[in-house]
Amino acid sequence: MTNITKNEFKPNYAVPPGETLEETLEAIGMSQQELAERIGQPLKTINELIQGKTAITADTALQLEKVIGVSAEFWLRLEQQYRETLARLYEQEHLVQILPK
């Protein structure tokens, strides 16, 4: 029987998809304010997306796709990976606290 090792990257940090959004806005020369106006969201919401305080929903991902031209699937995948990593990091920290030393 052959064992196949599956390499998976599991970072010890979480990068909010908002960082990619911020970099994308910079690359296309669009301000957060302009994005907010074009997708009909308050500037505060855009800022919270960028900081990772607010999740990118399917509706927001579709709006970003229309305005920025980057697929909704891409944004949703980034969001899912971010939330999964946060959960994994939280769980690891929790296990460290409850395991005997």
Characteristic terms for this protein:
single chain, 101 residues, mainly alpha, 434 Repressor (Amino-terminal Domain), 5 helices, elongated
Question: Oligomeric state of the chains?
Answer: single chain
Overall mean pLDDT stands at: 89
CATH class: Mainly Alpha
What form results from the Cα inertia axes? elongated
Largest sheet, in brief, is: none
How many β-strands, per DSSP? 0
**Number of structural domains:** 1
Report the portion of residues in β strands: under 5%
- CATH architectural type: Orthogonal Bundle
Task: Give structural notes.
- With 101 residues, this protein is mostly helical.
- Helix 1 packs across helix 3 and helix 4 packs across helix 5.
- It has one domain: Orthogonal Bundle (434 Repressor (Amino-terminal Domain)), CATH 1.10.260.
- It starts with 16 loop residues before the first helix and ends with a helix.
- The radius of gyration is 17 Å and the shape is elongated.
- Helix content is 66%, strand content 0%.
List the helices and strands and how they pair.
Blueprint (H helix, E strand, L loop, with lengths): L16 H12 L3 H8 L3 H9 L6 H11 L3 H27 L3
Q: TL;DR of this structure?
A:
The chain is mostly helical. It is built from 5 helices and no strands. The chain is elongated, with a radius of gyration of 17 Å.
